[in-house]
């Protein structure tokens, strides 16, 4: 499946490099820390190193085992990132004279509990694109405004698929039984890549359908999508780009329960108000499935994985997500376009960049 885009402008020839000057990530905690308790919370800034590398160094300095550190999520190696990590406060004296050229402890506090994986609201991003023309800057500004207003397709980023883009094939081979993987973490990683690949394909298909519905008249929409005329007519009445279908799995946004859409007219206002979103399938047997018209499309897009369903539990991921506090500034003298935006956990800044520039690493 060819990656589909939400924005309609022509490709942009900008330069993006994931370095500590042009890519900055700041973690947004799920909740404020209490300021008391037995766990020391470090607000740490690192550059050009992985979270694991940072934790390994902190472990060597403090004596705290890597597995005993708490963290909400893993941050990219490239760029400058800030995040919160926790360890028992008994190790605090060992950090009194802490110094490292790539790690800086910005602040410390305390909390009653260890930070757990996933305990973050999201991340705040700064991205600088270089060699941006005045015309392309206008496209970027308009694109950002549209994303801020309507949201964006929540694809998995290229990081999930490896340098050669073939991690999903390894995952599929493991599920088929034609590949053995002794390392349980790598086995899970490859299988997750296969789940991500199928999700991205399904999302591209839904964007393609939404585009055809949006741009064609009813008769041409019926012919190009193979959907019933009444369904196409109803979809065309929806004001937003990404169309909601009868039987879609919907999910309270940004957190809550998943449920099947039985009445589009009733649920659509909540989608438009960002109270719910459409959720795509990460394959697995013990998981809610789409039904009715949406279920037909889902079944077709995921038919190759039916033999593997009993091997995985599965889950749901937001297909359409929303950026907050979106800002963009063009610095004409330097030919730089700088942007800030906040994304919920699990969403990729690189997907926003790909959407804006139409440059991406295809599979």
UniProtKB/TrEMBL annotation:
Keywords: Isomerase, tRNA processing. Its EC number is 5.4.99.27. It holds the Pfam family TruD. SUPFAM superfamilies: Pseudouridine synthase. It catalyses: uridine(13) in tRNA = pseudouridine(13) in tRNA. Residues 151-332 form the TRUD domain. GO terms for molecular function: RNA binding; tRNA pseudouridine(13) synthase activity. The keyword tRNA processing applies. GO terms for biological process: tRNA pseudouridine synthesis. The active site is at residue 76. It comes from the Bacteria. One of its GO terms (cellular component) is cytosol. InterPro entries: PsdUridine_synth_cat_dom_sf (IPR020103), PsdUridine_synth_TruD (IPR001656), PsdUridine_synth_TruD_insert (IPR011760), TruD_catalytic (IPR042214), TruD_pseudoU_synthase (IPR050170). Belongs to the pseudouridine synthase TruD family. Responsible for synthesis of pseudouridine from uracil-13 in transfer RNAs. This is tRNA pseudouridine synthase D.
């Amino acid at each position: 499946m060819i990656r589909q885009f939400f924005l309609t402008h022509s490709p942009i020839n900008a330069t993006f490099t994931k370095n500590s000057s042009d890519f900055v990530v700041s973690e947004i905690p799920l909740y404020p820390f209490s300021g008391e308790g037995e766990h020391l919370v470090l607000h740490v800034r690192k550059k050009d190193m992985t979270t694991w590398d940072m934790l390994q160094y902190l472990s060597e300095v403090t004596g705290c085992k890597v597995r005993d550190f708490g963290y909400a999520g893993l941050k990219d190696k490239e760029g400058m990132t800030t995040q919160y990590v926790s360890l028992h406060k008994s190790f605090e004296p060992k950090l009194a004279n802490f110094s490292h050229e790539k790690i800086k402890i910005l602040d410390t506090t305390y909390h009653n509990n260890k930070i757990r994986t996933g305990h973050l609201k999201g991340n705040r991003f700064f991205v600088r694109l270089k060699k941006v023309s005045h015309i392309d800057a206008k496209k970027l500004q308009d694109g950002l405004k549209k994303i801020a207003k309507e949201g964006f397709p929540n694809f998995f980023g290229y990081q999930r698929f490896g340098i050669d883009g073939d991690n999903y094939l390894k995952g599929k081979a493991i599920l088929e039984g034609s590949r053995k993987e002794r390392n349980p973490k790598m086995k899970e990683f490859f299988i997750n890549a296969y789940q991500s690949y199928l999700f991205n394909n399904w999302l591209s298909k839904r964007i393609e359908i939404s585009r055809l519905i949006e741009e064609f008249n009813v008769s041409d929409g019926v012919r190009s999508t193979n959907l019933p005329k009444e369904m196409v007519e109803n979809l065309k009445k929806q004001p937003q780009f990404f169309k909601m279908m009868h039987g879609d799995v919907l999910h309270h946004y940004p957190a809550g329960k998943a449920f099947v859409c039985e009445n589009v007219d009733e649920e659509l206002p909540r989608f438009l108000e960002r109270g719910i979103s459409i959720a795509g399938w990460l394959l697995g047997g013990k998981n809610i499935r789409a039904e009715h018209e949406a279920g037909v499309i889902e079944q077709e897009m995921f038919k190759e994985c039916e033999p593997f369903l009993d091997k995985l539990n599965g889950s749901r991921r937001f297909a359409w997500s929303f950026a907050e506090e979106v800002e963009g500034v063009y610095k004409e003298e330097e030919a730089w376009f700088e942007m800030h935006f906040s994304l919920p956990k699990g969403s990729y800044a690189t997907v926003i960049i790909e959407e804006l520039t139409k440059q991406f690493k295809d599979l």
